[in-house]
UniProtKB/TrEMBL annotation:
It comes from Halopseudomonas sabulinigri. GO terms for molecular function: DNA binding; DNA-binding transcription factor activity. This is DNA-binding transcriptional regulator, GntR family. The keyword ATP-binding does not apply. Residues 1-15 have a biased composition (Basic and acidic residues). Residues 29-96 form the HTH gntR-type domain.
Amino acid sequence: MTDHRSPPEATRAEPDSATAPAPDRPKGALRQDAIYRAISDAVIEHRLKPGARLREDALAEVFGISRTGIRKVLQRLALEQLITLTPGKGAAVTRPSAEEAREIFDARRLTECALMARLATRIQPAELAQLRALAGDEQLALQGHEQSVAIRLSADFHARLAELAGNQTLARFVGQLCSRSSLILAVYGHAGNLGCECNDHNQLVDLLQAGDSEQAAAFMRRHLDSIEASLSIDEAPDEAPDLRDIFSTYR
């Protein structure tokens, strides 16, 4: 990672297979893909807070696109439960309930722990290097006090683990769970809390490198338990974000 100052580009340089546009897609669809990634990153990185209202007209002006195009992007984000569309009120960044938060972490334990047991038996040296690079970038972001970038990289690390385990259906599911976990941290986490401990990811890579399936799965469970234990319910009022400021790097 060479530049943390432009979040959409720095944190999503290589979109995953679920969101990467096909090369022969129409120009308008490619533009919507880019806007989708910009808004998704802003949500995951906590630059857009849970409950923040997303006015169609303001977004259309910020991104230089029609309201119809923005509406399609918002519908896509709503399908992934990153935003909520309410008739008569419009779009807002989703605010997960406490029950939803518990369910998401239960789902992560069920999937990610099983995937770690599988991954430990098949991971390759080049893949271990990729994971160490992600963990290193995350630590650099933390050291540079770039919390939003570190949040994105932490989610990317977990999503990449799932991809390497070889089940793409579960990998997409884990990616969505990680994105929703970022919302949970924004609502129920304490100031400065990224969820993942600074060196946890490196320790997990060590276990994967050793081929220790049982310990890798157990470590992932403890890791997710620790994140969930760090949360506390803290209701906050909805806010009106400055969309021009948040997406100032888009153009």
